[in-house]
Each structure stands twice: as structure tokens, then as C-alpha cells.
Write a structure and sequence with these properties.
This protein is of the alpha/beta class. Helices cover about 40% and strands about 20% of the residues. It is built from 38 helices and 45 strands. The strands form 13 sheets. Strands 11, 23, 24, 25, 26, 27 and 30 form a 7-stranded mixed beta sheet that branches. A 6-stranded mixed beta sheet has the order 13-12-14-19-18-17, sandwiched between helices. β33 and β34 form a beta hairpin. It is globular. The structure holds one RNA strand.
Length: about 1100
RNA sequence: GCCCGAGUGGCGGAAUGGCAGACGCGCACGACUCAAAAUCGUGUGCCGCAAGGCAUGUGGGUUCGACUCCCACCUCGGGCACCA
């Protein structure tokens, strides 16, 4: 059988389409309804690795089928393509083979462009976007700077995944099984300063936004799991014990007598702490009242001086405290806290409460936090330095009388004149002073033994918390070690060292085996029952999640249970499980699975009645969650697994982060007029090895003037993660050439949000989440029109993967790699794309082996199409190819509505029963192919086309010409070249006198519509069942009554046999389907 | 371990409460041919000569009727992995 010349045809039409730009799309924004008629279908753009593989063939020409159909349906379809052009492979090629990464990348793009064109996909190439073009990354940088200004981008020292071979930081997502996704070397943890994006701020919206999206539930679920929301409580545990305190404290008083008395108290309390006055450490101008300067100025100076001289500064009583090295004057605090209220009208407690509020406020403003508070005093711990302000809540006695005029009978001595009131403050007796200082001692103790917050999702099990565990990274461990809080410091140090040296891989592999060391010398107090419980450090607790410390409830947590078992820690059951699950499924369990399985499963999880929980005994665990949290003063809290997104990469081939570091002004954004910060050409692409980008070696580029002060400054040398580039490319497609903005608002309104986004399942938790975050952040910045909402993709579909013929993933080592080029050469692009469309359902994440024989079936099918066209041309049956022509012959106007096509055709075809049958078959095929394409079930659409082709081949006597042109249109999205060729051949022949002067693309034709009336049949095949088993079937009128159906059925021999003379107990009749006799 | 998805002929798959296996591959036989390839035609789940029986991972349930819905288990694929 002759085969069509795919080489000639495909090249010819690819050229024609390109020349005539039939796939270029206009924005067509309309006032009022800017999106009317517009349809945005998006495919993940490829990385230009340089070779097109079977995966590309699966990714691009298959959704093209959908895009083409939408276009034929009359939609104004945006179907763009571009290149995700930054990334490591280019740089690795540069390092390995000395090739310029830019050259490497752009040459690959040139090559891939040709390859992509050969697929016959209807991309609008005029909108091509390349992320490595300065015209593109100018806007990546610009948007980043908007984030920076909004506080969404920040720098922080953080433990990052470090690949020792690639010498770069990896995102969590790029670490696979503890190994570098790219090179496979083991990833280690390293502390480095990184640029981060605050994706965690959007955790809740990323979660709730999913609800309204038309995505598959499994994709949403994967994102939900990644965000990892859990609701629970934060509960504080006090730490006690008799630790040996040591260190040096500067007591902010030059009053020697007071210092001595204080030292006495320290001794009595067992604090081996040296007490010093400010004078002793060389601060002379301590007494702020003798100074003419304002209190605040003085305080700051003092604070700086103190901070440099001693590690821990305690400023107590009548002095201030530090926040991040700056001292706050308590008198000022008091004034501001009172905010005009009369001090005398308030009780001591009320004043204390107001001051506490104010402390919290300023602490928050400066990035610190009030970490603990207790009745008589305050403790403030900030992130880096910490300081304490202890204020005894004593009554302050004020008098107008000067020193000498005091009543000698009073045990008081005047101390100083209060600046705030102008009155004399009287100091109490020594004894009273000692009493007053006691809370200060307590405060200092508390500083060393602060209470620890834990996060738990099970506050209802608090009474069962029999020990407390810190993550090795918890700051308390380092602090406690430094202050010699622990008796077994050596053991702890060793454990920490071991834990730290573990690579991510080791930590994962040893996951099940619990290790840990007790922190001897301290205990924690279970706030629920006041019990003293041991405190441990163990690496099964993660530093990065929750508070980095947990309360362990071994009776109701599997991990705690294992740990407790190993180290012989007490286990206390506090929930009496209601076997809800068991009860619910009593039926099935009774007959099926053994009940013990269900009971065992209830051990860790689940609700129940509280036991061993004091006054909460008998309470339902769900209720107890809130009640116990309230009881111990805890806070309901929501935690997320999602971490902030580390976007900096110490690599060359990426978007330079557009900031400047100035020694005077700090981090400065590059000004808009200086964007883009162009990636400089360099010679040596190797990273520095200390984790700096190769850009650090580009000295000329590096040195720059500070945009703020004009002084010498340096550029940031890190580049952005490529996930940043791909987080907004779909916006640039809307307006790819815009030099004044990332995209014009009207054009964004014309296209966004994306109607349908097709891509690989591997991007579910990375690209898809990142770009949703990015879009939401842009939305909040006002860069996305409000009416579009804050979700970029309305519908998302993940595709599966193509395996090698052996059913394994294709890999060179397995030798099962399919080279699509080979098949293109042999069979042509139409055959290959159609075979891949036929291989399995595209909307499901299946994996389909490439069957080298299977493709022959498609090749045969297309050959048959070709031959049928040739044959009908020869028979000159093809005079009225086009339905429009038919319609004209029918006397109707040219503008006949599509939905009437079938009726027109029916009139023509109904000359014979065979023709009528064919017309009906065609009508059905239109319906099925249309619906199947919509659902991405290209396999069944093709199956329907195959059936119709067989019908046409068989229907020799039938008038098939009109049917054939409908068939061609239905086939055209699948085999765009072949159908275009046949279509135009037919047209030129029907237009008498040789080839038509111009050609008319089938791809711009209207998509056929079916006639619902023609779907209706007069008869149907009645299925006869006896007890649900099919026994017979026969043709009956469509609207047959049950009685009639019964009568006819019971007459039939087969039925009589099956019924075996028994009388039916019940008859079920389903109209248009079946009749079922139950005996 | 947890979460998600899937288990149907020799193979890819179809049918989402009503004829299990559409369509394609493969295979067998036939036609054409000196012959082969290609092409066309017929057949093709398993057991059975047949009538008939058995069949959608396994066991149970719901239903007149289950590949389809429910429960439990098994296997495979993907994701996460000590997230308290």
C-alpha cells in the first residue's frame, strides 16, 4: 500500500504555517470583558539541555492537540513557548569543557527551536521568552526588588544544604535521599548567609487558595502535605535544678553598700557569680543624673560600653535593660507606659502590667521578644544578646521633704530626687532592701533556667509528658553548656559533635534508631501536675520545626515510646481510647480482619477519655485539648512544615541578585534606572570554594558606588535560584517585548489567569507552589489586577512519563533509550505525536512503555486515511468536500450555523440506509472526540477516529464526501501536517482548474459540532438478565413499556431456558438498557 | 512508617452501578504472491468437543445487578520521611 511522503509534507506545511503566521495570537482585550473569547493554555517551558528526548515529545505536541481544538472552536488561544535558560548544566559544561555557558545555552536554544518546530505544535513563536535574556531578567530583578522593599526578601544566616562537589547551596527539594539531585554527592549542612523569600507568610493562603482551584485532588493534597499545617498548642515548661552558676554580672549601681548586700544574697542563693559595679569595668559616667545629656543618649552609650565588656549584663533595680545592645531606661519606660495616667491612682500590679505591655511593644519593634515574665519582675531575652530587667514591685515612697528634714523615727533614708516627679524617693531599710532584692536573685536564676516552650498537637496528653527533649540545635543547649548548667557537659558535647557531623543521609538512614543524652543537673516541671521530669537532648527532635523542643508522651507517641523504652523512661497512659474506628466497623471486623489489628492501631493516635489526668479525668480528649492548654496558660498555635525559600545560589549562570552592599549604608537595592544588573562575562566559572559565587572574582563588575551615599560598595555576588525565573514567565508571555514594565496591565487582564496548565508531576511541590506564592506576593504589591484574584492557574493537569520498551525508566546505562528522531525519520512527526497521544490517558500520571511495534498501528491508520483520500479523489466523489459547499447546494446561506452541519449532511447522506448509518456514526464521533480532547483522553478520541475510518472504508456505496471532511477536521489536531495536505489537495481539486491560488488552513476551520437530535435512536438492544447475569439480548423500540418488554422477553427460548420454569420474584426494568428477572 | 495513585487478556489500554476486554499491538489462519515483505479478510480472555462454567490483585460487605461504591489486606508506582 502506498504511503504518504511525510518528509515532504511536514516540511512544506511547517514552512507555510511559519510564513503565514497562522498561530500568532492577538491580545484582543475588550473593555469590560477583557478576557472574552481568550483562552490561555500553558505548558512548562523546557530547559535547553540541547537534546530533545521522548519526554519532550510527550510534553509539547500532545497538549498541542488540545490547543488546536480550542482554536478551531473559535477561541483566541494563547499557546506560548520559551526557554528556562539559566541553570547548572550550562555552568558545568563551562567548567568541564571550557565552553562559555551563554554560548552553550543559546546554541542549544537554536537547535531545540528547530526540533520543537518539527513537532508541528501550534506555538506562537513571536512570544518566545528566554529567562537568560537581560530583557527578561531585568524584570525578574525588578520584581525581586519589590519583594525586598516589602520585606518579603531578606538575608539570614541559616543552615543550608551544601553540595561539596557543586559547591553550592541546594533547596530542600533539590536534595534527594540526602544526596545532591544533580551530581549525587552527599549533602552536608552548613551555616551560611542566604537570601530568602518569606513564603511562610503565605502558608495559610497557599493552603486555603487550593479550595477554589480546579485541580486534581491528588495535586492539591501533595501541596497540602508539603505546607504541612498542624494545629496544636505551645506550652511552657519551667526548668529547675541546682545548677552551678558562674560568670560575671554587672550590677547597674555604683552604690557599694548595695552591691555588697547583693553579693551576700547571691551567696545565700548559691550563685557563684561575681558582682561588679559599672565603675569596676571602667564606666565612669554611669550616673545618668549627673550628666547633662538626655537619658536615652546616655543609655545607649552605656549600653555599648557594657556590651563590649561583659558577656552578660544585668542591670537591675533602678536601671535599664538592653535590647540588642541598646539600653532602655526604665523610668522612660514607665513614663511612656503610663501614657499620661496618674501613677498614684494605679496599683503596683496595674503599673507592672502597663509596663509589661510597653516592654513587649518596644521589644517587638526591635526584633526582640519578651520571653518570660513572672510576678515580680520581667525577663527579656533577645535573639543575640540578652539582658534582664528586674523590677521589684515595692511601693515607692515619695516625699517633698529633703534629706535632712526626715522624721528620724522612720527606718528610711532618702535616696534621690525622682526626675519624673521632682519628689524625693525614700529608700527602705536594709532588711527591706534585702527582701526587695530577692526577686532579682530569682530573676537571675530564671535567666539561667528559663522556661522552655514546646509545641504539641496533643495538649490533651500533657499529664502523660514524662520527659522533655531538646533538639541538638536548640539555643538552650549551647547556652546551658556555656554557663555550665549541666553536670555531664563532656557527654553532651560529645553527643552534639556526633549529631552535627551526621550528614543528612546518615540522619535519614539511622532514622529509626533513637539516640540521646540526658541533661543532668536540671529538670523540667510538667505544668499540668507540677511533677519534676528529666530533660534530654536527642536528634530525633528537629531544630527547625516548632520550638525545637518537645514534651515527650511515650504512651501516645510512637517515637517517644521507642526512646522511652531504650532509655528506661517512665511511660504513663493518659488516654483511655474509645475504639471509634473499631465500633464503626464492627461488622466488617467481626467477619474480616482480626480485631487486634484495630486495637493496636489505636495505641498512638486517636481520641478517648482522659485518665491519670487529675481533675481532667473522664473528659473527652478533643475537649481536653483546649481545656488543658488553658489550664497551664498555653497558647493555641498553628505550625507549618513549609520553610522559607532560600533563593540565593553561589553560582555564575543565573540572575544576579540586584543589591549592593555598602559598608556604611548596609544593603541597598539597585536603582530601577540601573536595571538590569547584567551578568558579566568571566573567565573562571569555578566557585571560590568558600561558598562564594564565581562572580566574586569579577572585580571590575563587583566594585560599584553605593546608590545611597556614593561611597565605595560591592555588588551582591549570589545569583537567583532558577525556580525564581520560572515563577513568573507565564506573565511575560502576555506581553513579552514590553520594555517599560514586566507586562502591560491590559494584556495581563486579557489572559490571566491561565486556563489550563499542563506539566510534569515532579513540579507539584516546587514550581507550582513557588509560582503560586510569587503570584500572590505580586498580587499584594498591586502588580496583578485585583479582579483576577491571586491564583495564577485555574486548572492544572499533570502528565505521566514514557518508559523504555522494557517498562523501565529510560536511561543510557540500561540501554533502553528511545531516540524519537529515528522514528520521526521513519514515520514522521504526525505518527509519533499521535502514537504518544494513543499510548494512554494523558490526564493521568501513568507511566507508559514505548512499544516499537505499537507505533505501526498509528502509521497504518494514517496511511489508510491517505489512501482513502486518494481513492475518493480518483472516484471524483470529492466534489463537495466542504460542508459549506453542501450547505450551499442545500440552498442555505454560507453563514449556516455549525450545529446544523450534521442535519445538512443527514439530508444528503440519507439517500441510502448505509449513508444514514454513516452520518449517525459521524455525529457520534464528533461528540466523543470533542469530549475526549476536553478531558485529555486523547487515546479514546483516536480510537473513535479509527472506528469512523473503518466505517467510511466499508461504506463504499455511501456518500462519504461530507463525512470525510468532518473526519479530517476531527483528525487535524492530532495529525496537523497530513490533514492540512489532504484538505488543501481536496480544495484545489474541487476548485476546478488546478491548484487554488491561495491555500486555506484546515487548522483555521471551525470545529464540527454534533446534532443532539441525530444521537437519538429508534431502537435499542435490550439486555436480558436473570439474577443479574446476561442471558439474551434483542432489538426493541426505544420507548418500549416494561409490560411489553416483559412479554417479549419471556417468549424467548434462551430466557425460558434460563428461568427454568421458575416464576420471577421481581422484575427490574431499566429503560433504554435492560430487563432483569430475579428468581 | 505516613500520604497519594494504580492493580482488568501475551502487551498498552477501554468501560466509573447495567453486554467486561472498545481501539491498537502481538499471535493464528486465510487471500494476494513463484516467494517474502507490505496490504486486505477472519479469529483471538481462560477451561471445555459442546452445553456451559470461570474470569477485572485477595477476602468480606452493600445492591436485583459491582472493574466501578464501602471495609480490611496484598502488590506495584510516586511523594514525604523522626514535622511532635
Amino acid at each position: 500500500m502506498p504511503s504518504f511522503d511525510h518528509k515532504k509534507i511536514e516540511k512544506k506545511w511547517q514552512k507555510e504555517w511559519e510564513r503565514s503566521k497562522i498561530y500568532e495570537v492577538k491580545d484582543q482585550p475588550k473593555a469590560g470583558r477583557p478576557r472574552a473569547g481568550n483562552f490561555y493554555t500553558l505548558i512548562e517551558f523546557p530547559y535547553p539541555s540541547g537534546n530533545i528526548h521522548a519526554g519532550h515529545w510527550y510534553a509539547f505536541p500532545i497538549p498541542d492537540i488540545f490547543a488546536r481544538k480550542k482554536r478551531m472552536e473559535g477561541k483566541n488561544v494563547l499557546f506560548p513557548i520559551g526557554f528556562d535558560a539559566f541553570g547548572l548544566p550550562a555552568e558545568n559544561a563551562a567548567i568541564k569543557r571550557g565552553i562559555n555557558p551563554k554560548k552553550w545555552t543559546y546554541e542549544n536554544i537554536d537547535y531545540m527551536r528547530k526540533q520543537l518546530r518539527s513537532m508541528g505544535a501550534s506555538f506562537d513563536w513571536s512570544r518566545e521568552v528566554i529567562t537568560a535574556d537581560p530583557e527578561y531578567y531585568k524584570w525578574t530583578q525588578w520584581i525581586f526588588l519589590q519583594f525586598l522593599k516589602k520585606g518579603l526578601a531578606y538575608q539570614a544566616v541559616t543552615a543550608v544544604n551544601w553540595c561539596p562537589k557543586d559547591k553550592t547551596v541546594l533547596a530542600n527539594e533539590q536534595v534527594v535521599g540526602g544526596k545532591c539531585e544533580r551530581c549525587g554527592s552527599e549533602v552536608v549542612q552548613r551555616e551560611m548567609k542566604q537570601w530568602m523569600l518569606k513564603i511562610t507568610d503565605y502558608a495559610e493562603r497557599l493552603l486555603s487558595g487550593l479550595a477554589k482551584l480546579n485541580w486534581k485532588e491528588e495535586i492539591k493534597e501533595a501541596q497540602r502535605n508539603w505546607i504541612g499545617k498542624s494545629e496544636g498548642a505551645e506550652i511552657e515548661f519551667e526548668i529547675t535544678g541546682t545548677p552551678t552558676y558562674s560568670g560575671e554580672v554587672v550590677f547597674a549601681s555604683n552604690n557599694q553598700g548595695k552591691l555588697k548586700r547583693m553579693q551576700k544574697l547571691f551567696k545565700a542563693a548559691g550563685l557563684a557569680i561575681k558582682l561588679k559595679s559599672p565603675k569596676e569595668i571602667g564606666i565612669k559616667d554611669f550616673d545618668v543624673l549627673e550628666d547633662g545629656k538626655t537619658l536615652a543618649e546616655n543609655s545607649e552609650k552605656k549600653a555599648r560600653a557594657l556590651a563590649g565588656k561583659t558577656k552578660l549584663s544585668v542591670l537591675a533595680d533602678d536601671s535599664g535593660f538592653f535590647i540588642d545592645g541598646a539600653e532602655i531606661d526604665p523610668m522612660m519606660v514607665k513614663r511612656n507606659a503610663l501614657n499620661g495616667k496618674d501613677e498614684k491612682s494605679l496599683s503596683v500590679e496595674e503599673i507592672g502590667a502597663l509596663m509589661l505591655e510597653y516592654y513587649k511593644k518596644i521589644a517587638a519593634e526591635r526584633g526582640g521578644k519578651v520571653d518570660a515574665e513572672w510576678r515580680n519582675s520581667l525577663c527579656l531575652v533577645t535573639s543575640e544578646k540578652f539582658a534582664i530587667h528586674v523590677e521589684a514591685r515595692r511601693p515607692v515612697i515619695l516625699t517633698d521633704k529633703p534629706h535632712g528634714a526626715m522624721d528620724p523615727s522612720l527606718p528610711l533614708r532618702p535616696l534621690y530626687m525622682s526626675r519624673a516627679t521632682g519628689k524625693y524617693v525614700l529608700e527602705q531599710s536594709e532588711d527591706e532592701e534585702m527582701k526587695e532584692l530577692l526577686p532579682i536573685i530569682e530573676g537571675i536564676k530564671k535567666l539561667f533556667t528559663p522556661s522552655i516552650k514546646v509545641f504539641t498537637t496533643r495538649p490533651d496528653t500533657l499529664f502523660g509528658a514524662t520527659y522533655l527533649v531538646f533538639a541538638p540545635e536548640h539555643p538552650f543547649i549551647a547556652m546551658g553548656n556555656e554557663k555550665s548548667l549541666f553536670e555531664n557537659k563532656k557527654e553532651i558535647d560529645e553527643y552534639l559533635k556526633k549529631a552535627k557531623s551526621k550528614t543528612q543521609l546518615e540522619r535519614q538512614q539511622g532514622a529509626k534508631e533513637k539516640t540521646g543524652v540526658e541533661l543532668k543537673g536540671i529538670k523540667a516541671i510538667n505544668p499540668a501536675n507540677g511533677e519534676e521530669i528529666p530533660v534530654w537532648v536527642a536528634d530525633y527532635v528537629l531544630g527547625g520545626y516548632g520550638t525545637g523542643a518537645i514534651m515527650a508522651v511515650p504512651a501516645h507517641d510512637e517515637r517517644d515510646f521507642e526512646f522511652a523504652k531504650k532509655f528506661a523512661l517512665p511511660i504513663r497512659k493518659v488516654i483511655n481510647p474509645v475504639l471509634q474506628h473499631f465500633l464503626q466497623n464492627a461488622d466488617s471486623i467481626a467477619s474480616g480482619a482480626p480485631a487486634s489489628i484495630a486495637i493496636e492501631a489505636e495505641c498512638w493516635e486517636g481520641a478517648g477519655e482522659l485518665i491519670n489526668s487529675g481533675s481532667f479525668d473522664g473528659m473527652d480528649s478533643a475537649k481536653a485539648k483546649n481545656e488543658i492548654t488553658k489550664f497551664v496558660g498555653g497558647k493555641i498555635k498553628t505550625q507549618y512544615k513549609l520553610r522559607d525559600w532560600v533563593v540565593s545560589r553561589q553560582r555564575y549562570w543565573g540572575v544576579p541578585i540586584p543589591v549592593i552592599h555598602c559598608p556604611k549604608c548596609g544593603v541597598q537595592a539597585v536603582q530601577d534606572k540601573d536595571l538590569p544588573v547584567v551578568l558579566p562575562e568571566i573567565k573562571d566559572y569555578l566557585p571560590t570554594g568558600e561558598g562564594k559565587s564565581p562572580l566574586a572574582k569579577a572585580e571590575k563588575w563587583l566594585k560599584v558606588k553605593c546608590p545611597e551615599c556614593g561611597g565605595p560598595a560591592k555588588r551582591e555576588t549570589d545569583t537567583l535560584d532558577t525556580f525564581v525565573d520560572s515563577s513568573w514567565y507565564f506573565l511575560r508571555y502576555c506581553d513579552p517585548k514590553n520594555a517599560d514594565a514586566f507586562a502591560d496591565e491590559a494584556k495581563i487582564k486579557a489572559w490571566m489567569p491561565v486556563n489550563l496548565y499542563s506539566g510534569g508531576a515532579e513540579h507539584t511541590t516546587m514550581h507550582l507552589l513557588y509560582s503560586r506564592f510569587w503570584y500572590k506576593a505580586m498580587f499584594d504589591l498591586g502588580l496583578i489586577p485585583k479582579e483576577l484574584g491571586d491564583e495564577p492557574y485555574r486548572e492544572r493537569r499533570n502528565r505521566g512519563i514514557i518508559l523504555g520498551p522494557d517498562g523501565q525508566k529510560m536511561s543510557k546505562s540500561k540501554g533502553n533509550v528511545i531516540d524519537p528522531d529515528e522514528y520521526i525519520k521513519k514515520f514522521g512527526s504526525d505518527t509519533v505525536r499521535m502514537y504518544l497521544a494513543f499510548i494512554g490517558p494523558y490526564g493521568e500520571v501513568g507511566s507508559y512503555p514505548w512499544d516499537p511495534h505499537g507505533i505501526l498501528g498509528i502509521k497504518r491508520f494514517l496511511d489508510r486515511v491517505w489512501n482513502l483520500a486518494e481513492a475518493s479523489a480518483k472516484k471524483s466523489l470529492a466534489k463537495a468536500q466542504d460542508l459549506q459547499d453542501l450547505a450551499q447546494r442545500d440552498g442555505a446561506s454560507r453563514a449556516i450555523p455549525q450545529q446544523r452541519d450534521m442535519r445538512v449532511l443527514a439530508n444528503f447522506g440519507a439517500e441510502t440506509t448505509e449513508s444514514a448509518r454513516l452520518v449517525r456514526a459521524t455525529n457520534k464521533t464528533i461528540k466523543q472526540v470533542s469530549e475526549n480532547i476536553e478531558d485529555f483522553k486523547f487515546n479514546t478520541a483516536i480510537s473513535a477516529l479509527m472506528i469512523l475510518l473503518s466505517d467510511m472504508e466499508k461504506g463504499e456505496g455511501a456518500k462519504v464526501d461530507g463525512v470525510f471532511s468532518i473526519f479530517l477536521k476531527l483528525l487535524s489536531p492530532f495529525a496537523p501536517h497530513l490533514t492540512e495536505e489532504i484538505w488543501n489537495k481536496m480544495r484545489s481539486k474541487s476548485a476546478q482548474g488546478g491548484p487554488a491560488s491561495g491555500w486555506k488552513s484546515i487548522h483555521l476551520e471551525k470545529w464540527p459540532e454534533f446534532d443532539p437530535k441525530l444521537l437519538e435512536e429508534d431502537t435499542f438492544e435490550l439486555i436480558v438478565q436473570v439474577n443479574g447475569k446476561m442471558r439474551d439480548k434483542f432489538e426493541v423500540p426505544i420507548n418500549i413499556s416494561q409490560a411489553e418488554a416483559e412479554r417479549l422477553t419471556l417468549e424467548r427460548e434462551k430466557v425460558k431456558l434460563a428461568l427454568d420454569n421458575k416464576k420471577p420474584r421481581k422484575v427490574i426494568f431499566v429503560p433504554k438498557r435492560l430487563i432483569n428477572f430475579v428468581v
